Amino acid sequence: MGSQKGFLSAIHSSYYNFIDKLGKYVPYILLAPTLVYMILFIGYPLVQGVKLAFFDEQGRFTTANLDYLLNSELSYFWDALKYTLILTGIIVPTQLLIALLLAFFFTSFRFKGRGVAIYVAVLPLTISDVAAGLIWYTMLTGNGFLNKLLINLGIISEPIQFFGWEYRNMEILAIVLAELWRSTAIVFVILFAGLQMVSQEYIEAAEVFGASTLQRLRHIVFPLILPSIQAALLIRTLFALQIFGVVWVLAGRDVPVLAGEAYYEQVSLHHSGVAALYALIIASISAILGAIYIKFFKAKYLEQ
Amino acid sequence: MAGVMGNPLKYSFRGIFIAAIASLVMAWILVPIIVSILYAFAAPSDYYDVKKIIPLKYTLEHVNDLLVLGARDAMLNSVIVALLTIAISFAIGLPAGYAFAKYVFPGKDSLKLLMIGLRMFPIIVIAVPLVTLYIRMGLYDTPLGVALAHTAMALPFVVIITSSIFAGVPDELEEAAMIFGLSRMGAFLRVTLPLALPGLAAAAIFTFIMSWNDVFIASLLTTLNRTLPAFILVSAMAAPDFIKFAAAFLMVIPAMIFVFVARRYLIAMWGITLR
Q1: Which of A161, A303, B30, B45 has its CA 20 to 30 A from that of A207?
Q2: How many CB pairs under 8 A join A and B?
Q3: Is the four-CA dihedral A219, A225, A229, A231 of positive or negative sign?
Q4: Residues A215-252: tens digit of each pLDDT
């Protein structure tokens, strides 16, 4: 019995010695296609983007696109920057709060139908921004569900107008509602997963030592899910900076945003250089945020 | 646990609280979806009647009109683009996911971090430069061109998800298969791959939805052969309300079907990719 085991492990180890010699390069060979693809489809377009934005057709350096973007009356850059930041500033903190409360709710209480409720809460994960915009248009338009409901309840006598240039603030409200509805699910999933990884033993230990519910939340649970909160914040902030489809469907250029202006300059005005510049601006803001994030939280990711 | 039985008043308050929050969450998510589906099929007379909050007469006209106007071709393009994206991103990303899961090698941590970083790269940035490149290469306005750009978007996710799926298959099984004479490739094909298949199917659905939902890249890279979101973005803005409702319906339904099919993996999948 013993000799047979020795024989097997001898084969085993000699096989592995062979694989080891050849195998040193195997992971790199497996990874090569992905790396080459990312260089071709992200690295190369980035270089091309800089070329489009800052060089003319003869390859000479030019600030014409930058001048247009910053100073032209046709350019909505400053408004686009303003509204992108306003929307991000409203949507991301609000949905973080909602998602945090929901995640606590679903981890604290076990009840009949909890699984179904969680399933429903994450449904919007698969719904695109364009579809979410159209769905909320159905809810809020003059003959839409909300107006008819409020009129029949006697709360209002005339429909509330959400759409059109003169109701720009209401358009912003509609965008915020649609984005909260659609993208809070992503934050919820991240926080919910984070909360489930918090060991019950820590909480029980704190209970034994007489910590109140609030103290347990503040000193045990919150520090443990802080990485999840940070991850959710970063992901949602980066995506919010790219907000486009939902704005375009609900408000068009009434509420200009950075990605929307990139689309408009490219598709309607054929200003590729300006569009590329918008893209680079979005990329730069994202890169700065991402760099800060990786610098501070690198270790946490690699533990997994 | 002890408090539940001890204090009936507290118990009933707790029950009401739970029921209220749970119903609020369900209503907040479900009412807009249900309303937009009902309105997509509402007869115009009922839609314009203020008294009819929920329409009672229904018609297939609006969805039919939209399909004839071009949504049928756009949906077909969307499906082709999404399937191509799955095929290309899995062919390229699966080996990388396997390498991360089963090998230890110098530079692994940095490369993994690169993947995690790329996952957050604002992919809309590459769309503008790709237009010029695609026109030169004959890829502009083709499903393959859009799929190649979508692959750049999906690849980091595919690598991260498949690596976590392969890591879930015990190394011992593969080693046992190799002791019994299979090559590493054979062990992968005969042991690891079949065990990973349900997870990979869910990952494919995830990729499908990513591609299906993209509007920015597809809008820039196509003019005639539009995908569904790109087609809707251009045509729905100027269209009457019914067409908008029908558009929402067509966009949401496939995603919902896939969610239903893959619901067991849904939260785990998004949890892995977004942590």
Answers
A1: A303
A2: 280
A3: positive
A4: 887 888 888 888 888 888 888 999 999 999 999 999 98
